[in-house]
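Now for one protein, fold included:
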Amino acid sequence: MMESRRIRKASAMWWTIAALVALFVPVATHAQAPLFYANDGTLVRKISFKYVDQRTLEADELKQKIVTTSPTTVDRIKRYIPFVSPTRHRFDPVVLQKDVVRLRRHYREHGFLFAEVDYPASQLDTTHNTIHVIFSIVEGPPLILQDFGFYDSDGNYTLDALPTRLQRDWVRFRDQLSLQVGQRYTDAERIRIQDQVLNWMKERGFAFARVTASARVDSVFSTADVQYVIEPGPVT
């Protein structure tokens, strides 16, 4: 009787061990593999962005700046359509490295001088030879607009260089510009303001007007001073 009980206990123990092995072995099979195991046949399964500190630029915007692509909704639908092959999004580690540079440059243009972009959290599935590319982003402190001004080529304020009849109109236009001290500085905003000023000049008869903009950046304090130089030229 005692022997039979020991046999039943031993059998129950082995069944428990077998169940645990069956539970954990598939997980180990699909565990993340080192990225250097990727090969020419590896396909991109998904692209994600992991923000470590804050999120200013959205994932949809960042995806437009990289070359690496992942399956779209249309690609997934094509899998169920006979005689239609979905697009194969191949993984290229060299292209991925260039994408990191592209993203860093994009962040710099949007006022984040020290943004860190990398992909150590990416997940490679060697069983299906697919990879989930995960960009880890640390935006860092933004570049703040500290000062800006509008001058002529001699260093005089634009207001003093304009005809009297346009001075009040200029002040109203200048005060309505979205450029404000204390906001995040971006190259795109600087160029946009430059174009607005040029259009304002041309609409008031200065067909040959020129507007140039330059930014002095202090990387230590993360500040920028922007100077717009306006050369009206002759009135047409």
Summary: The longest strand covers residues 43-51. The first helix runs from residue 2 to 29.
